[in-house]
Amino acid sequence: MAEADPGIFAALQPVEERQVADASELDAALREADRPFVVRDLVSDWPLVAAANRSPGEARRYLLDHARDMDFTVSTGESGSNGRMFYDEAMGMNFRTLRAKLPEIFARMEAEEGKPDAHPLYIASTDMHRFFEGLAEANSIDLAGRKTLDGIWIGTPTRIAAHNDFPDNLACVAAGQRRFTLFPPDQFRNLYPGPIDNTPAGRAISMVDFHAPDFERFPKFREALDHALVAEMEPGDALHIPSMWWHHVEGLSRFNILVNFWWRDTPRWLGQPQNALNLALMAIRDLPQAEKEHWRDLFDHYVFRNRDEDFAHIPEDARSVLAPLTPQSAEHIRGFLLRQLNQ
């Protein structure tokens, strides 16, 4: 895979590195962190990392020993794309998504390995518990009781456009070298996000090619780079990506494996903020400006400011969804919305 312009990445501030002696220190670091940090060798004792350090073939054999007899989803990109999984010129995708058994996918990866015109192959976020038996248990990390979604990402050299995720993330490199380029949430305008409904994997992505940024088309990207952090990672290293931080991810080796753990500090019954944004696009964005200003004021009153004094005139036991939410009142809102949307 061709290297990116070193002038872009070499000038970036490195992500802070921390040392943690045990699960308690890791828990404290995760709870207090509002910026990314790297812990070197955090998962270097994993059997998967040990297999990968021996060879890509050993890593594949280790995964096959644990894989269930199921069809996996794999994306195959274009030859000559330099591993970039992105849009094509018509704003479709420049990759195809296929279903196949893991031995077949790995055989294809091995056959493509090292070819200058290789088609990138990428198994994106795959549930370790559902698709593998015993893999998650043998390659785990103590996250102090956090309820996590445990995913594995497997591929040849790839470039995944900058995007963000709502949950917090601990991303652990199990095989190959990775480069993460990260941006604070407030830099989203300077990253030029694409569509929010037509996306490669469910999240809006930056339209900027980090290997060849077009500063005439994307001039504010220069400002984003002033705030960027970069993490160059080896097998066994872990990176904490806080909620909503943008991250551009590159698998730099001929065979790469990433294991990540997602979690929320808020209960899942609160729902996904992205759904509220999508609904507001449909119901509010195209209203006359005066009406939009009124709805902005209502959102500020009920959602963003949300002060007790604003609702003091309502008896406390009659505030319904204006009171702090519970699983029951959240379900009440969800049911109400579904009924309204289906009318």
TrEMBL record:
SMART domains: JmjC
Name of the protein in question: Cupin-like protein
Listed InterPro entries: Cupin_8, JmjC_dom, RmlC-like_jellyroll
Signal peptide: none
SUPFAM superfamilies listed in its UniProt record: Clavaminate synthase-like
PANTHER family noted in UniProt: HYPOXIA-INDUCIBLE FACTOR 1 ALPHA INHIBITOR-RELATED (PTHR12461), HYPOXIA-INDUCIBLE FACTOR 1-ALPHA INHIBITOR (PTHR12461:SF105)
Highest taxon, organism lineage: Bacteria
Start and end residues of each JmjC domain: 115-278
Gene3D superfamilies, alphabetized: Jelly Rolls
